[in-house]
Amino acid sequence: xxxxxxxxxxxxxxxKSKTSVYEINPVEDGAHLSVMIPKEAxxxxxxxxxxxxxxxxxxxxxxxxxQEDVFALVARPVIDNVISGYNGTIFAYGQTxxxxxxxxxxxPERFSDRGIIPRSLSYIFQQFGQHADQSHTVHVSYLExxxxxxxxxxxxxxxxxxxxxxPKVLLMEDEDQNMHLKNLSVHAAQNEEEALNLLFLGDxxxxxxxxxxxxxxxxxxxxxxVHVTSKEIGSATVRKAKLxxxxxxxxxxxAKTNVNGLLLTxxxxxxxxxxxxxxxxxxxxxKHRSHIPYRNSMMTSVLRDSLGGNCMTTMIxxxxxxxxxxxxxxxxxxxxxxxxxxxxxxxxxxELDPRLLINQLRAENLQLRNQITIQSGSEQFTELxxxxxxxxxxxxxxxxxxxxxxEATLNVGADMRKIDQCYRAFKKLHLELQEQVKTASATPxxxxxxxxxxxxxSPYDSKEVKELKEIIKxxxxxxxxxVNMLKKEKKTEYRPFSESTTPPTDSSFSASDRAGNQ
Length: 518
Ligand code: ADP
Ligand code: MG
Known about the structure:
- It is a single chain.
- By secondary structure, the protein is of the alpha+beta class.
- The chain has 13 helices and 17 strands.
- It has 2 domains: 2-352, Kinesin motor domain (Kinesin), CATH 3.40.850.10; 354-442 and 457-495, no CATH class.
- Helix 1 crosses helix 3 (116-129).
- The longest helix has 31 residues, at 462-492.
- The structure holds adenosine-5'-diphosphate and magnesium ion.
- The site of magnesium ion has 5 residues, from helix 2 and helix 5.
C-alpha cells in the first residue's frame, strides 16, 4: 500500500498584459506562489485586509511552460504507476478560461499543443511496446456530467445535436451500497490510433453540445477514463488499474457570473456540484471525520476512489494572473492547499484470474497426456497423413502465426508425424517470406520431401508415466474445484446492469476498492 497525499501543481496561463501581481520562489521539494493583490482591488471584491498571499505547490509552471514539460512532470509518474497496477487520477481545477481544457486535452492548433490525455495514450502504448514479456489491454470511457446528469460522450451513433441527445448515464446503488454507472460504454483500443479516435469522438460530441446558449463545457465536468490491464505471459495474475483524467467545471463563484434565467440555474448547479466537491475535500482534510459526504453529487461519487481512497491523485490548479482574475486565482490556490492535505491509500490492484488459471492447467494437462503417449508408445502412428489433414495442419500453423496473442499455442497432440508436418509448414512459410523479401535472388522452393517419417519412440517407462498420470489427476481435481467455484460465483454475482456494455475492468466502483472513508 502506498500512502500519499494528493500532489498539487500550479499552472499560470500566459497573459499579454504586464503583471507584477505574482512571484514564484523555489523552496525545498516545491515552490511558493506569492500573489499580491493590487491596491485598487482591495476596496472592491476583496474585502480582506491581507494583501499578500503565499501558497505552496509541488511545482509551479509559469506562463512559458510547455505542454511537454507539464506531461513529463505531472502525468508521466502517475501513468507509470497505472501501468504497474495502481489507480491514478489527474484533475484540473480553476476558473473558466484559466487553461483546464488546454492542460487536460490540449489546444487544437498545433501538434505540440496536445494535452495530457493524448500524450498519456501515446505513452501508455509506447510503454507496452517495450514489454514483450507482458500482455496488456486498454479500454476507454468518456463521461460528461452536466447539471447532475451523466452523458456518455462515446456514443458511436454520432447523432447528437445537443448534450441531451447523448445516452444518459445513471448512478445506481446496489444492495451492498456500491455505486455503479449504468449505460457508460467502455471501448477497447488495440493501439494508440484507436484510442485517439475515441478521444476525438468524445471531444466532437462534447463540442457539438456546446452552443453559445449552452456553454456546457465550462459548466460541466468531463472524466476521461483509461482502464489498463497488464499480465506477465504465462501467469494467471492480472494487474488492473484505472486512470481518470478530469476536466472540472469552471470554479468561478455564482455571484460573479451575472446571469439569469436558465443560465443562472446552470451556474447554480455547477456551483453546487463544486461546492459538494469542496465539502468532501474539507471533510477529508479534517482529522477524525468519520462521515465523508461523497453521495451528495454524481461527480464526488464517481471520483470517490480518487479522493481519499485507493488512488494516486494529482491536481493541477490553473490560474490566470490578469488583475481582474486575482480573486479567483486566490480562491483556486486556497482550494488546492486543502486538497494537499488529503491522504490516499493506493493499493496494488492485483488478482488471480481463475479463468486464466483453468486454461493454464488444462494446457498443462494436455501436454502431460501427450508426453505419456510419446513415452509409453501406447499409440503407434505409421500410416500416411492424408492431404486433407496436411492442409488442416498448415491452416493451424497459419492461424497460430497470425494470432497476435503472445500466449497463443499450437497443439496437434502427441503424434510426431503431425508435429513434423507443422515444422515443415513453418519452414515453407519462412522460405516463402524470404522469397517475397528478395524476389530477385530467391530460388524456388521445391520442397518435396516425403511426409512419412519414422521415429524412435522412447521405451515404455512405467514409473515416469505413473507419476505423470498422478499429476494429471491432481490437476483435474484442481480444475474441477475452480470450475465449481466459478459457477457458484456466477450464481451469486450481482449484475444489475446487464444491458450496458460490459466493461473489462468494472466501470463500477466498489466499497472494497476503497480505503474505508465513509
Ligand atoms: P478552461 O478550460 O479552463 O475554461 P481553456 O483551456 O479553454 O480554459 O483556455 C482558454 C483559452 O486560453 C483557450 O483558447 C486556450 O487555448 C488558451 N490557453 C490556455 N492555457 C494556455 C497555455 N498554457 N498556452 C497557450 N494557450 C492557452
Ligand atoms: Mg474548458
